[in-house]
Amino acid sequence: MTDKPVGQQLGPWRLQIAPGWNRPEIAEALTQLRFLLERAQAPLLAPPGRNQVHRLQLPCGDSSAEVVVKTYGVQSPWRDRRAQLIGSKAERAFRNALLLRNAGVGTPAPIGIAEHWEGTRLRESHFVAAFIPQLTNLRDELNRIYAEAPYCAPLMTLLQCVANQTRAMHDAGLLHGDLGNQNIALQPHPETPDAPWNVYFLDLNRARQTPSPTPAQRGADLARLDLPSDFRRVFHAMYFHGYAPPPEFATAEAKTRAAFARHTALRPFRHPLREARIRRAQTREEQPLRGRDIWIWDDRSAQAIPAYTSRDRRQLQPASNVGLALRSAAKHGCSIRRNYKRLLAQSFQTPVAMNDAIGIALEPEPTSWARQLDFLSQLQGPQKIPLLLRLYHHKNLESWQWTLDQALLLHRQGHGIAIALVQDRRAIREPKGWRQMVALAFDRAHSFADFFEIGHAVNRSKWGVWDFREYLDLLQPVRAALIEYPNAKITGPACIDFEPHALGALLDILPRDLPFHALSQHLYVDRRGAPENAQGPFDTVGKCALLRAAARTFGMADDRLIISEVNWPILGAGVWSPVNSPYETLDPRQNDPSVDEETYAAYLSRYLLLTLASGHASRAYWWRLAARGFGLVDDTHPTDWRPRPAFYALQELLARLNGATFTRKPQTPPGEYALEFATPAGPLTARWTATTAPVFS
User: In degrees, to the nearest 5, what angle opens at C-alpha 295 toward C-alphas 291 and 301?
Assistant: First the structure.
C-alpha cells in the first residue's frame, strides 16, 4: 500500500487509484465502467443532465464495493486542452477529495478516476467514490425544516455542523468554488445530539487548493450559500467560532453574492430550454419556500424568529402597508387626537376596581403543566387569577385539543380564561389548518372564554403577517364562528410594542360587520426600559390613553385596553431571552435592554399599578408564569424551578390589591410616585421612585 494515488495507463485508459484501492481487479473494473453501468442498469442519484451520477456495485474480485460513479459529459476542445494543463474535472475532484480526506474533513472517500483520451480529446471521464447511505443535502434539509418542522433549535444545530466543517475545509487549504446548498451532503448521526449530522462536500472539481486562505477568499467562497439573510449572519458567526466576521470577509462575501445573483438571474436567458424543463418538472409542492413564506419557531424564547435582517424585511414588506397607515391617519387622526386629549386628562381621575385586573399567561405544555399549576396556586390568594392560554397554529390538532381541555378544567376551578389564537405563516399560505383551529376553539370554548384574541403581533412580519391585508384572511373563519356563537367576544388586532401607525392601518381595514369587543395589545416599554420611560411624547400611561382613544374612535364595545402580553427580558439569559438572537455570539452586546431580576420585579409592580390604576386598561396579562429568559419562575432546571423576585412581587401585589379600588393619585415631587387605594382592610398607599420598588403602607 502507498499513501499516494497511483496513476497508470491501461490500454486507452488513464487511471488514478486512491491509496488502499490499488489492485488489478479495481483497475480492470474502472476500465469497464460504461459497460458495468449499462449492464446493471445503475440507478441515477441525481436528475440527468450534462453530467450523470449513478450508484453501482463495483466488482472487486470475489466481492464488490458500493460506489458512486460520476460521469462527466464530453466537453469542447478548448476545455480538453485546459484539462491537459490543470487536470480534468474528474482528476481535480479526485485530488481535492484526497486532500480533504487526509485532513479529516468530510467528503465521500475517493476510489479512482478513469479517463479515455483520443489524442487531445477527452472522450470519456469517470470519478468513482464510496457510496454513503442515507445522504440528503443542505438544500433539501433546509426546505424540509421550512415546510414541515419549522423549529429553531434543530436549524441552529444543522447550521453549526455545516459551519464547523466548512471552516475545517478552508483551514485545510481548500476553497470549494461552487459551495451551493446542494453540494453540502448530510448524513444523519443521531447518536451525537450536539452534532447530529455528518457533513460531506461534493462536486470538488472547481475547488482550488489554497494554503491559508485569506478572510476575503473565505467570504467569496461562502457567497453561494442560499440562506435567508439573518440565518446567513448567524452562519458566518458560527464559522468564526462565535465572533462577527472581519470587514474584508463581509465585503468579499457581499460583492461575490451580488455577482452570483446577477449570474443566476440571467440563467433562463443563457439556458432557456433547460430552465423551462426544470420548471415544468417541479410541482407546486416541490417548490422550496422562499421570501415571506419562511417562518421559524424558537422554543427557547417562545417566539417566532426573523429569518431576515431588518433591511431585507423592509424590502419584503409591501408598500401598501404605508399607504394604509397614511390613509388611516388622514381619516381618523383628528378624531383619535381629540379622544386622546380627553382621555389623557381623565387618567387616574375615576375609581378603578382592581379585582380580576391582573392576569397571567400559562404555557400549554404537558410536560411542565403540573409544575405550572403548583406555582400558580402558590402565587394567588383566595381570588382566582384570570389566565390566558395560547393556541399555536404551528402545533397540531392534538395540542389544540389538550390546551382546550385544560382551559375547561381551569374555568371549572373558577379562573377566567382567555384564548389567544396565534398564527404562523402557514395560516396565511394554507388557511385550511387555521380554519380548523379557529372552529375548534370557538366550538369548545365559546361558552366560557372571556374573549378570543385573534392574531398575534400582526405588525411584526416574523409572526407571519407581512401585508396588513393578510390579517383579514385570519378573520374569515372568525366571522363564521361568530354567526354560530354570537355571544363570543373577540379582541385584536394584538399589535406588539407601540406603533400607532400600524395599529391605525389595521383598525381601518377591519370589517365593520365583525364586532371587536375590545382592543388587545402587547404593550412593551420602548427598549424595555422603566415603565415611567417616555417614547417620544408618550409615557406608558400616555400610550394606554392613545390606544384607548383608537378603540373609542373605531367603536369597540369596551374602549378600555386589554394588555395581553408584557414582560422584561432577564439579563444573561442568552438564547432564552426574547430580545436576543437565536444564536449567541461572543462579541459584546450593544444596547442590551435586559435587566437583572430585582429590577424586573420592581418594573412589574410599577407597570401594573400605572396601567391599571390609570383607568385606561381593564386587564393586563403577564407573559408568563415560567420561562428561563423572561418568566416569573426560572424553569432552567427540569424539575427544580426557582421563583424569581418578581414572583414574590406579584404575589404581594395580588394580596394587597385583593378587593381594592383605586381612589386617588396624590401630588408628588418629580421622580416620586404614589397611588391610593381603598381596601377591605382600610386605606392603602403604594409609593415608589424611578429607582425603587413600590412600598405599601
Answer: 140
Count of Cβ atoms closer than 10 Å to residue 112 Cβ = 26
3-state secondary structure of 426: helix
SS3 593: coil
d(CA 289, CA 147) in angstroms, rounded, equals 7
Comparing 44-48, 225-229, 536-540, 673-677, the range with the smallest average pLDDT is: 44-48
DSSP of 153-192? HHHHHHHHHHHHHHHHHHHTTEE-S---GGGEEEEE-TT-
> What is the rounded distance in angstroms from the CA atom of residue 565 to the CA atom of residue 458?
13
Give the integer Cα–Cα distance in Å for 200 and 107.
4
Contact 204, 96 (CB under 8 A): yes
Count of CA atoms in the C-beta half-sphere (13 A) of 411:
19
Separation of alpha carbons 683 and 679, rounded Å: 6
Residues 6+ apart with CB under 8 A from 156: 234, 582, 583
Q: How far apart are CA 537 and CA 526, in angstroms?
A: 12
In degrees to the nearest 10, what's the CA dihedral of 692, 694, 695, 696? Answer: 170
CA distance 244 to 237: 5
Give phi and psi for 117, each to the nearest 5. Answer: -105, 140
Does residue 1 register a pLDDT over 60? no
> By the 8 A CB rule, do 519 and 561 touch?
yes
**Three-class DSSP labels, 315-383:** HHCCCHHHHHHHHHHHHHHHHHHHHHHHHHHCCCCCCEECCCCEEEEECCCHHHHHHHHHHHHHHCCCC
Cβ-contact 94, 16 below 8 angstroms: yes
| Residue for grid cell 407597570 | 607
Over residues 12-36, mean pLDDT:
93
pLDDT at 275 (0 to 100): 67
Question: How much is the pLDDT for 281?
Answer: 64
Query: If you ran DSSP here, which 8-state letter would residue 557 be given?
Result: S
Separation of alpha carbons 425 and 414, rounded Å: 35
Residue 248 half-sphere exposure, CB side, CA atoms within 13 Å?
Answer: 6
